[in-house]
Amino acid sequence: MESIDLLVLRSACQWLAEGERVLLATVAGTWGSSPRPVGSMMALRADGRVVGSVSGGCIEDDLIVRYTCAHGGPGMPSGVPEVLRYGVSADDAHRFGLPCGGTLELVLEFDPDLATLRYLLSQLDAGHLVQRQLDLRSGQVHLEVTDHPALAGLQDHVMHSTLGPGYRLLLIGAGALAEYLATMALFNGFKVAVCDPRAEYRATWGVAGVEHLPGMPDDAVRAFGPDQRSAVIALSHDPRLDDLALLEALQGPAFYIGAIGSRRNSQSRRERLIEHFGQTQASLQRLHGPIGLYIGSKTPAEIAVSVMAELLAEKNSVRLPGSVRVAEGKHVMECSA
Asked: What does UniProt give as the signal peptide span (predicted)?
């Protein structure tokens, strides 16, 4: 399953190519609480069809009424982009289902340029991070490939947003836990790959839509080419496989690198990587282990929920207190028992 941003852009491209009128809405600013973050997008077709979201649903409904003929509305205007703000008053906030004190600012583009959208998608499909700048006075869009994401928002009549290729996840080991985690990652918009040189595990893999990388784990990591929107998780429980992947991944910029294992096994792994493979305490700061959040998980499915929650928190730059992580959570529970 593709990320929602790519799905919105592809839908807009397809509709425009079919001759349909299209509105592209982007969250340009929020104040207080808001259902969707800055940069979130939705595409609205003239007949009321919607892909993506900018709120919990009420604002989407209002946009359909305002800009389509689906419910007898006036249809879409033409011309330069518009700025639309919701939730300025308490009545508006209540009407549109915004949290207490929430305000949402949208930039609306009417019939965005098809050639420019196609070029943007080609760059994203090629794995590039792209800075998109929309001049609200002229409607002109400037695209620039970049190495570092910039803060999205509206400033001096220009809306800035950074769009990137879909997030990716490489799993080492093709056991039951990997299948549950792959399924959750796919539903969260990740492209997922798995590597397991053990034929008996590869033969029983049952999750569709996952790329299988051949060879040993270190070769698979190199072939995967982790970037800043990638994660690598070792799940084989075999240090001969997991260590190879981790050592290779630690050389790259993946935003999350982790390995399954108990507190004792995780500590042994760190000692092993330092003693035999030239790692240091500093170089292993990026290595997560034990992985996951402490939710008392026992089954592979529950452990996958725990790991996916930590992965998403890292992706979304959420700083979690140590007490919610597996190692400290178990320690607290043991001390209070």
From this structure: none
102-126 exposure pattern, b = at least 16 Cβ within 10 A, e = fewer: bbbbbbbbbbbeeeebeebbebbee
For 211, the enclosing helix (H) or strand (E) is strand 211-212
Strand partners, 259: 234
Q: Which residues of 289-306 are buried (b: 16+ CB within 10 A; e: fewer)?
A: bbbbbbeebeeeeebbbb
- Asked whether the CA dihedral 48, 50, 53, 54 is positive or negative, the reply is negative
CB-CB neighbours of 130 under 10 Å: 21
Q: What is the DSSP string of 299-321?
A: SHHHHHHHHHHHHHHHHTT----
Q: What angle do CA 170, 7, 53 make, to 5 degrees?
A: 110
Phi-psi region of 317 (alpha: psi -120 to 50; beta: other; left: phi over 0): left
Given a cut of 70, the residues of the chain with pLDDT beneath it are 1-2, 32-35, 56, 70-74, 88-102, 327, 329-337
Which pTM value belongs to this model?
A: 0.76
Distances (CA, A) of 62 to 66, 83, 287, 299: 6, 15, 46, 44
The top-level CATH class assigned to 168-336 is alpha beta
**Domain limits, the chain:** 4-163, 168-336
pLDDT at res. 319? 87
Q: What is the pLDDT of residue 90?
A: 58
β-pair partners for 160: 133, 153
Q: Can you count the helices (H) and strands (E) in the chain?
A: 11, 15
26: nearest Cα among 46, 12, 15 = 12
